[in-house]
Amino acid sequence: MRVGGHVSSAGGLAKSLQRGSDIGADVVQFFISSPRSWAFRAPSAAETMAFRAEMEASGTLAVVHASYLINLASPDEEIRGKSVDLLLATMRSARLAGIPYVVLHTGSHRGEGLERLAGELIDSISTAAEAGAGEAKLLLENTAGAGGTIGATLQELAWLMQEVGKRAAIGVCMDSQHLFAAGYDFSSPSLAGDLAKDIVRTIGSPEVVHLNDSKVPLGKGTDRHANLGEGLIGLTGLRNLMSQDVFRNANVVLEVPGSGEGPRLADVQLARNEVLLDHLR
What we know:
Blueprint: E1 2-6, H1 13-22, E2 27-30, H2 45-58, E3 61-65, H3 77-96, E4 101-104, H4 118-131, E5 137-141, H5 154-164, E6 170-175, H6 176-181, H7 189-202, E7 208-211, E8 213-214, E9 225-226, H8 234-242, E10 251-254, H9 265-275, H10 277-280
Parallel strand pairs: 1-2, 1-10, 2-3, 3-4, 4-5, 5-6, 6-7, 7-10
Antiparallel strand pairs: 8-9
Helix pairs in contact: 3-4
């Protein structure tokens, strides 16, 4: 199990590795290009080669988070097209940089129903997964459930994996806050154990976990992260969840606010010492 956090890649990809080192991370997640722009700035060949070498030398694992602008299920054809283009560019750059995982929020049907665009959605995800060429694996992230977002239930994720899996390898990133906000209760060891069995049965073991506490209550449906132990899940609930064997080999990434600029050294240490200790002994 590797533990780390989401960091900035401002100033170049290699900067993310240094920022990860500063917070004691052995896995870092970052945006490869601005998450606020449809324009994609692809890293140069020299930058990707240097990043590959430094990542291998440091032993740090890297994960790319695809832009939040991407919505492969949008009823707007122009948005869908731009989303596919942006995701393909992200997948190709991740592959060239030797980054093994790209995490994706699949998108929202904006209240028009998943069935209307199911075919286009599966085709778009499959095309992106194929662009990883067996080197950069696309991971679908579970969602909190509000606003017609896709992937709030394990069954919906399982369906996506089954359909896309007919064309390309694909995996899952599991977010603890999104699980909680979507109504999955792991406040006791027994509830967490039952949830773990459902995860194994439907989607298998997630390769990446976003470890976050929640600012909103169980089932609220909104995506609002809190620092570990400062939210409504709490350290006990997070420990109940993460002590399950299904997460034993996961790469754990904190996406907590810290003091306003993301995960700190203290947050990563807290995760290791209070939440993940069953797997790190």
